[in-house]
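Box 3.1 A note on notation
Throughout this textbook, protein chains are presented in two layers. The first layer is the amino acid sequence; the second is a token string describing backbone geometry. Keep the layers aligned when reading.
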Amino acid sequence: MRTITTIFLSVFLVLATFSAVGQTESSPISVIVKSPVVKISSEKSMAQFDKELRRLNISNEQLYVLLLAKKIGEKYNLGLSLMGVTWQESKAGKFGPIGDIKAGFGRRSYGVCQVKVRTARHMLHLYPELRKYSRDGFSTDEELIVALITNKTFNLDVAVHVLLSLRNQGLTWDEMMEAYNLGHVTKHPSRFKYTREVAHNMHSRPLSVVDKGSI
């Protein structure tokens, strides 16, 4: 019976994963028009913005994820930081939604910000408002994993609350980035590769273009 249940859950997660990967997004221009995050001054500027996105090879889905990260993160003054994290973790959805495959079920990383189940559970405990994404508050890990994979808003909201919880502990920005990746802080967080890469992402051309909404 346990084997059948395990097989069923595995198939369910695979289908959910393919569903998340296969989702189609609006064209970049229509996403921008509907977004309160990016302000484009004119139709000509919008066309230039769209052209620049194509030149940088930013897909519709990546643009959507970055705009969503900006919108969610800015509530806590972490918009650009969250954009940098999701770009580092999954290139804003370009990479597959499941990381650390060899770690085994329940210990892998999921979604656009590569959040682990244990981390998500801790955030749900610290910030009960995150339970609004589930009818029963994520009573099972299976439901939580599917949500982390398929619901980008939830994934980003969990991730920004991880950063928020670290900042509330008095950590510096470098320490926050290191702790997000490692789960702890070392003696020299500014030298940590992940920290330097996220900082680089935040000032890279792709994120600068999306963040400013102009070229």
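Residues 2-21 form the longest helix (20 residues). The domain at 2-212 is CATH 1.10.530 (Lysozyme).
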